[in-house]
Amino acid sequence: MKTSLRLLFLGCSLYAIPVQAQTYCQPTYSGVGGGSGTYIDGFVLGGINNLGTGPTALPGYADYTNTGLNSIATVVPGSTNSATIFLGPASQLTQYAIWVDLDRDHVYGPTEQLAYQLVENDTASVTLSITIPADAQRGYTGMRVLCTSIADDADDPCGAMVIGETEDYTLVIDDGAPCIPVYSFGTVGGDYIDGFQFNTINNIGSGSPNGPAYSDYRHSGPSFITSVAPGGTYTATITSGGSFFDDHYMIWVDLDGDLSFEPDELLGQGFVNGGGVQTTTIDVTIPANAPTGYTSLRVMCTTLGEPTEACGTFIAGETEDYTIVIDDGSPCIPVFAYQGSDGDYVSAVQLADLNWTVATTPPLWGMPMRPHPVPICRRT
């Protein structure tokens, strides 16, 4: 009797490697917004609470990214969030618009204008709704709040305008898989990871004082994935970015594959003193009873003395996530550099009376976690 095996695959596409140290365009104003009362006097959204700022001197642009806890907020894909703009005492119709860089390409595209409001003169504040699309890319990104007179084009986030003000903030788009830490001052002080080596993972020169405080490398290619054995000990080498503070480095492994990092999954720690580029090594031992399969490894840099946790709010630093394959060799587990993220995956298998299909969401891992050791049933 013949048996048939049919494997169904989806198409192939390239996966973008995280981009470092890009900047956003800056709009300009030729007139003074303060004289006409056309300016942003405060902005509130989630954790952002920046009040009583008054008008900004020409060219009318205020960059509040990486300036403290009041200038950064976390939002969830698919959520609707209220943003309140406190207004200057304008004597004319004023336009307000909000953009979010949803694809994290450092460009505010036309479809990324998520709110617009035309406001009558002498209005004290306006509250707008901002809906984050369910498919928005996770990670740190920019948010722009623009104010201008009725005579200017409020649909151009990078234009040359006459009267008004623009303010930039930081949003963390976090789907919780796994959670993304919040760094209120980001990497501006040199407290970041500029190199990470672990077994065959080799990511050198990755950091920047203008770079994102979180990078997800888990599905980004052969330099960002490695295979390890239960019970094995491996040395991680971390290069700092020229730390201003004394920094604390932590390495976590999601041993149970639940997309969270529990206290007992902190497998290594190291410390460096502030004042220049330094290298530290941390030994990481994979527990002998660790389940096998694909999972996440997290390396964190935080200022010394902050809580030992994989999530939460910190002063400065950076977090990077990688993929590791825990493999006991029974049987061996292939290493797929991009896993299923580029569209190459098995969507269905039919073999005799076996009929297996995956969920509608494509698998991001080359193989799910499984208990160790795996009991095997054989017909005799």
Q: What proportion strand?
A: 35-45%
Largest beta-sheet characterization? 6 strands, mixed
Helix content: under 10%
Instruction: Indicate the low-confidence ranges by residue numbers.
Output: 1-20, 374-380
Dominant shape:
elongated
CATH class call of the largest domain = Mainly Beta
What's the architecture of the largest domain, going by CATH? Sandwich
Number of strands: 27
CATH topology of the largest domain: Immunoglobulin-like
Q: How many DSSP H or I helices?
A: 1
Radius of gyration: 24 Å
Count of discrete structural domains: 2
Q: Order of helices and strands, N to C?
A: EEHEEEEEEEEEEEEEEEEEEEEEEEEE
How would you characterize the overall build of this protein?
By secondary structure, the chain is mainly β. It folds into 2 domains: about 30-175, Immunoglobulins (Immunoglobulin-like, Sandwich), CATH 2.60.40; about 180-325, Sandwich (Immunoglobulin-like). Helix content is about 0%, strand content about 40%. It has 1 helix and 27 strands. It has one helix spanning about 35, and strands spanning about 5-10, 30, 40-45, 50, 60-65, 70-75, 80-85, 95-100, 115-120, 125-130, 140-150, 160, 165-175, 180-185, 195-200, 200-205, 215, 225-230, 235-240, 245-255, 265-270, 280-285, 295-305, 315, 315-325, 345-350, 355. The strands form 7 sheets. Strands 5, 6, 8, 9, 11 and 13 form a 6-stranded mixed beta sheet that branches. Strands 17, 18, 20, 21, 23 and 25 form a 6-stranded mixed beta sheet that branches. Strand 26 (about 345-350) and strand 27 (about 355) form a beta hairpin. The two termini are about 20 Å apart. The model is unreliable at about 1-20 and about 375-380 (pLDDT under 50).
